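Case study 2.
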Amino acid sequence: SPPSPRRSTIDPAADWAISRPPRHSLDCSPASPMLLRRLDIAESFRRWWKRVNDLWEANKTAQSKLTFIENLNMHNKLARQLRPTKHRVFYSTSGNTLAAVRNSRPGQLVEQKLLWIPVGGISEARYLTAVLNAPVTTKMVSIYQSDGLMGPRDFTKYVWMLPIPSFSENSRIHLELVNLAEKCESAASRVDIGSFGFQKSRSLIREALRSEGFLTRLDRLVETLLSNSEVNDHQ
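Prediction:
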């Protein structure tokens, strides 16, 4: 089975998404305290940083002795992302439908609504995204999920309770999933998502994949993969 997913609890600043963020760095080395090293930090960022620090101090629990910057790397939740493998798979922590994507940019950080796992290369990443994005996977993992007002919600580590075998380049079905994932990526890249939010964007992409028959093929391959894995486990 894949390595345990890692979680980030770094929330993105919304205004950074629409403007070029000021440059700064965090010293996360275990040998020294975490320091904010200011390079050419804009005045707007200094104001934002002070506001965030003030909010942290005003709202943190009475038991917490951590400053805001110390909390950023509590349990190495930030440092782990600053030194990841080149290839990772991100997937949603909750929702009505499991969604996954591969990432080959080590410098990108994920926030608390995503989990990530390191993988050995593009082929393994595509294999896992194919398995995770198959509609049948969402259906199969739902028996382990807690129920909310809108039905089963949390995915977290329940995904790995399914008998998903480790990737093997010698497996025909694994390579078929890799090939299909590449086609799905290509199809998804042609979908015009404009300025829609992620829910609408996901819906448009799924509809495009469904219309081209990719989701049906994913389901068929993943059902075969998991059923074969269960048979092997019982032998």
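Residues 34 and 70 are 7 Å apart (CA to CA).
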